[in-house]
Amino acid sequence: MTKPRAGQGEANEPQDDALVQRTLQGDQQAFEMLVRRYERLVFRIAGGFLRQRQDVEDVAQEAFLKAFQALARFRPGAPFAPWIAQIATRLCYDRLRARRGREVDWEDLSAAEQQSARSMAGSASPEVAAANRDLADRLLTNLSPKDRRVLVLQDVLGYTAAEAAQILGCTALAVRVRIHRARRAMEQAAERLLAGMEGTE
Amino acid sequence: MNSCDAVGKRIAELVRLSQAEIPGWVRDHVAACRECRGRLAAARLVRAVVESGAEEVEPPAGFAHRVAVSVFHQATTRRTEAELWRPAWGLVPAFGAVVVALLIMFQGSLTPEPTGMFLTEGLSSGEHLVLGSSAPNLDMVLSAVLEGDGK
User: B26 lies in which domain range?
Assistant: First the structure.
């Protein structure tokens, strides 16, 4: 699990601040450069929360649109990465809130997802497949959007509690409390699901 | 510490191990203990779920250009619309004053004048009877009371 990183660009490339200023003056190419610099970060964050490629792309586009609209309020000298990460995370959170799922049972899974669950639960290194992602999505939707947000930032995207707290606008302690709760909730959901698997075998 | 507790404490470490790497005593215990088997399987599933979320989603080619064009187009459109409406906003106070004046002018005509007529339509027959009868004569009431010895 690698943390998404995005930097200030190479030495000969303009700094983020300069690109922000040029964008505010109407320079489209400067904004394009800014998007290119942070698109991987935004896609990685959105991809951690949302499993449908189209959703990920929609959120990424919306995140840059929102960033553009709020660019005049961006504090000069502040790092751009946490700011855009915060925007993207908030957008993902809004989507998760809108589509919270119900608890998933073994019978709800497709044959491919059941196969995936069997291999994930039995093997230490399962192969990644579309069914794995679908299954992951089903299990993650059991979590409250707030718990999921913390779990994804820390366990999926590899942010530390302090970094996650900066993105979420809360304390690191609050993040630690929530991540503990989220992990426990996931384990309980998985235990319940696998109890259904044992019942059918 | 019993075996279940020992497995529980090492669960985060155990999920990273392949079946062959798991210590023999854990394997034996898990094979016999349904609860620990379930916990270990669930922990592995959660780890796999979390890892499958870490799968890289690459931005499509030309994404940055498309976004920049779209964002600047929207900004330009919004600016044009704002400029179009700016003179109209100046007329808002005048429009408001006209609306208020019209309201004051027509307010009198909207209130119905009193007709002096009492409409009996829609009254029940009991109400007709009460409203149609004349008021009791006080002298007749008094004489009736006196003639009846106050009864």
Answer: 3-53
Q: How large is the ipTM?
A: 0.72
Domain tally, chain B: 1
Cα-Cα-Cα-Cα dihedral sign, residues B143, B144, B148, B151: negative
Considering only CA atoms, give the Rg of chain A: 19
- Which run of H or E residues covers position A161? helix A161-168
Query: Over its length of 201 residues, how does chain A's per-residue pLDDT go in tens digits?
Result: 445 555 555 567 788 999 999 999 999 999 999 999 999 999 989 988 887 788 899 999 999 999 999 999 888 888 899 999 999 999 998 888 877 666 677 777 777 777 777 777 775 455 556 666 777 777 787 788 888 888 888 887 888 899 999 888 899 999 999 988 888 888 888 888 777 776 665
pTM over the 0.80 mark: no
B145–A contact, CB cutoff 8 A: no
End of a domain among A99, A133, A157? A99
Q: Find the CB nearest B42 among A53, A155, A191.
A: A191
Give the domain range for residue A38: 10-99
Same-domain status, A81 and A116 = no
**Which of A30, A34, A57, A62 shows the shortest CA–CA distance to A44?**
A57
Distances (CA, A) of B19 to A198, B44, B90: 19, 12, 77
Residues of A in contact with B19 (CB under 8 A): 123-124
Do the beta carbons of residue A185 and residue A142 sit within 8 Å?
A: yes
The closest of A44, A7, A15 to A159, measured between CA atoms, is: A44
Gap from B12 CA to chain A (nearest CA, Å):
11
* A65 and A35 belong to one structural domain: yes
Taking contacts as CB-CB distances below 8 angstroms, the residues of chain A near B52 are 128, 132-133, 135-136
**Final residue before a domain boundary, out of A68, A99, A130:** A99
Examine residue B83 and state whether it is found in any structural domain, yes or no.
no
